Amino acid sequence: MSVSVRSTILSQFEQVAREQNRKLAPLSDDLVLMDSGLDSLCFAIVVARLEDALGFDPFGATEDARFPVTLGDFIAFYEDAAK
Question: With the C-alpha atoms ordered 71, 72, 78, 82, is the resulting torsion angle positive or negative?
Fold first, then answer.
């Protein structure tokens, strides 16, 4: 994959925040997703776009998927699923 999973995720967070007129918190691995400035609609858009961009949906791949708590958890979840 030419573009890293991390950079794809970060750019989607930024793009969706702009499009939805949301104030995005500074992105860091320890940022709690619920404090990011994105709402559930924004997260749904991010996950759908990541499936298009990366070609997989890690949430659909496991039956007991728990939604990651921090941005670092979210990125690791996708990076692990990409392996």
Answer: positive
CATH of the domain at 40: 1.10.1200.10
Count of domains observed in the chain: 1
Structure tokens at 75: 């990125």
Long-range CB contacts (< 8 A, 24+ apart) of 28-37? 28/71, 28/72, 29/70, 29/71, 29/72, 29/75, 30/70, 30/71, 30/72, 31/70, 31/71, 31/72, 32/69, 32/70, 33/67, 33/68, 33/69, 33/70, 33/71, 33/74, 36/71
pLDDT in tens, 28-65: 999 999 999 999 999 999 999 999 999 998 887 666 66
Give the structural domain span for 65. Answer: 2-82
The structure's pTM equals 0.89
